[in-house]
From TrEMBL:
It comes from Ramlibacter aurantiacus. Residues 49-179 form the ATPase AAA-3 domain. This is MoxR family ATPase. CDD domains: AAA. Residues 255-321 form the ChlI/MoxR AAA lid domain.
Length: 339
């Protein structure tokens, strides 16, 4: 064990340095949006997908495109529209008149980072086509299975201020997103820097990692230690969304029609691992998980008409649940690791 300690320390230092370099390169282009960028990195390390809600012009596309450049990955953007068909997304079979054979033309989902812009503008058939890619990391065309490149991350955006011509996302698809992140306007100081940077000399992004290195980071993320008490905390939080009365929140039962699925519990644990790794630790702490609770749960709650009529949001209900179910204390094992 003692012989491996220096090697593990060197490996941890190299990992921290690589993560720092990736973030530094992205921040050379993207101003502010630290919480959003952190969630994008968490999704990448935990191999999850991200649903982002924010008005246009808040650097959502720029963030993902820049991140793809830093890891030498492929980036593609699809503008979702009501006339989009599944073949536009996954690809199709094309008949060659000269040879008399069919060939497969793969769609834009075959990339490392896919930005699905205004995802709620596409009809149900397109949503179901994207669903298979998100869950299985593969596409079936004319009975043939084609695997998408690894790593693979879908970041879908929704515009909260435009509702005309939009389709509600199926609950099954919404559940496939690891987190739903709300992107807000920049501060006055940040906006000043944005204007200076955009109107000034262009900044080139330097690739600092390969997709193979990112895959190695993802594998390392799975080895981050999560104490059983933290897993129990995640289970209690998600269970409280399904049966609030069992957790001392009887008055909330009338506001939630359906709670979160077991995927939420898994995503809380995986997200805590990734956030701990981003923060330079090989073990997760309670704050790593509690910081992600709103992002992991807000899109998974189906609110009742009573909640909507009273103007209650999913975030308000999640806040009540979080205040009722306390996070566990830091386990003693963590203190030993720090020492």
């Amino acid at each position: 064990m003692e012989d491996n300690a220096p090697q593990n320390t060197r490996q941890d230092a190299a990992t921290a340095k690589l993560m720092e370099q990736i973030l530094y390169e992205v921040k050379r282009i993207v101003v502010g949006q630290d919480a959003f960028l952190e969630r994008v990195m968490v999704a990448m390390l935990a191999q999850g997908h991200l649903l982002v809600e924010g008005v246009p012009g808040l650097a959502k596309t720029l963030t993902v495109k820049t991140l793809a450049s830093t890891i030498r990955g492929h980036f593609k953007r699809i503008q979702f529209t009501p006339d989009l068909v599944p073949a536009d997304l996954v690809g199709t079979r094309i008949y060659n008149q000269k040879s008399g054979d069919f060939s497969t033309s793969l769609g834009p989902v075959f990339t490392n980072l896919l930005l699905a812009d205004e995802i709620n503008r596409a009809p149900a058939k397109v949503q179901s086509a994207l669903l298979e890619v998100m869950q299985e990391r593969q596409v079936t065309i004319a009975g043939e299975t084609h695997h998408v490149p690894r790593p693979f991350l879908v970041m879908a955006t929704q515009n909260p201020i435009e509702t005309e011509g939009t389709y509600p996302l199926p609950e099954a698809q919404v559940d496939r997103f690891m987190m739903k992140v709300l992107v807000s306007y920049p501060t006055d100081e940040e906006e000043y820097v944005i204007v200076e940077r955009v109107t000034g000399a262009p900044v080139d992004v330097s690739p600092v990692a390969s997709t193979e290195q990112l895959a190695a980071l993802q594998a390392e993320c799975r080895r981050v230690y999560v104490d059983p008490s933290l897993v129990q905390y995640a289970v209690r939080l998600v269970s409280a969304t399904r049966d609030p009365s069992r957790h001392g929140l009887k008055d909330m039962s009338r506001f939630i029609t359906f709670g979160a699925s077991p995927r939420a519990t898994i995503n809380l644990v995986e997200g805590a691992r990734a956030l701990a790794m981003l923060r330079g630790r090989t073990y997760a702490l309670p704050e790593d998980m509690s910081d992600l609770v709103p992002d992991v749960l807000r899109h998974r709650l189906v609110l009742s008409y009573e909640a909507l009529s009273e103007g209650l949001s999913a975030d308000a209900l999640i806040e009540r649940i979080s205040s009722k179910i306390p996070a566990p204390p830091r386990p003693l094992e963590h203190e030993k690791l720090v020492a």
